[in-house]
């Protein structure tokens, strides 16, 4: 029996969509995750503030994962009521769970490329593995020599290692490409285009009923 690999998947989820859900469900099968904790973040001050409230973003998360036992929601970043860095969240998670259990933090390929702009990014692997989902338009090829070197140094294709070791590795997954972004969905809504195939039916209904993003 492999050791359980805990998983966190952070995002703004404004709104949650199939580009989040389908790759992560495939990733769970690929590496053997039994639970993925969605971690809705506070919108950082430098990002455009959304029309939706944290309560509405969480309501959409709940509807999206209804009946799907793979997913749970971790409210810690929202409860903190101020933007929090991933590294702080991981430190806090480790204080609760100790350093021995295996933890993965899931990101998309675009986030991998932006990693050097994250707070104390080189220390992330001291707390977790990073599992990277494929995303259309992005590859792990990077212009940044320091990121390139860091990827080579930490990358593994050994799934068993992710379960055995508590942290420290980077795994580039073979997940399906889903050409969807929350930005595109918000745009489609403003332009009154049909977007309902891009996210779960119940989330679509919630957006319609509450007239979000118009
Ligand atoms: P926005 O368009 O508002 O920037 P987004 O659609 O990129 O939002 P986020 O909530 O910012 O969604 O993303 C959370 C995480 O999910 C990030 O790590 C991002 O890379 C990943 N992600 C989002 N969409 C996809 C997708 N279509 N395929 C793979 N990963 C994705």
TrEMBL record:
<keyword id="KW-0067">ATP-binding</keyword>
<keyword id="KW-0520">NAD</keyword>
<dbReference type="InterPro" id="IPR005248">
    <property type="entry name" value="NadD/NMNAT"/>
</dbReference>
<protein>
    <recommendedName>
        <fullName>Probable nicotinate-nucleotide adenylyltransferase</fullName>
        <ecNumber>2.7.7.18</ecNumber>
    </recommendedName>
</protein>
<keyword id="KW-0808">Transferase</keyword>
<feature type="domain" description="Cytidyltransferase-like">
    <location>
        <begin position="8"/>
        <end position="187"/>
    </location>
</feature>
<comment type="pathway">
    <text>Cofactor biosynthesis; NAD(+) biosynthesis; deamido-NAD(+) from nicotinate D-ribonucleotide: step 1/1.</text>
</comment>
<comment type="similarity">
    <text>Belongs to the NadD family.</text>
</comment>
<dbReference type="InterPro" id="IPR004821">
    <property type="entry name" value="Cyt_trans-like"/>
</dbReference>
<dbReference type="Pfam" id="PF01467">
    <property type="entry name" value="CTP_transf_like"/>
</dbReference>
<keyword id="KW-0547">Nucleotide-binding</keyword>
<dbReference type="GO" id="GO:0009435">
    <property type="term" value="P:NAD+ biosynthetic process"/>
</dbReference>
<dbReference type="InterPro" id="IPR014729">
    <property type="entry name" value="Rossmann-like_a/b/a_fold"/>
</dbReference>
<dbReference type="GO" id="GO:0004515">
    <property type="term" value="F:nicotinate-nucleotide adenylyltransferase activity"/>
</dbReference>
<comment type="function">
    <text>Catalyzes the reversible adenylation of nicotinate mononucleotide (NaMN) to nicotinic acid adenine dinucleotide (NaAD).</text>
</comment>
<keyword id="KW-0548">Nucleotidyltransferase</keyword>
<keyword id="KW-0662">Pyridine nucleotide biosynthesis</keyword>
<dbReference type="GO" id="GO:0005524">
    <property type="term" value="F:ATP binding"/>
</dbReference>
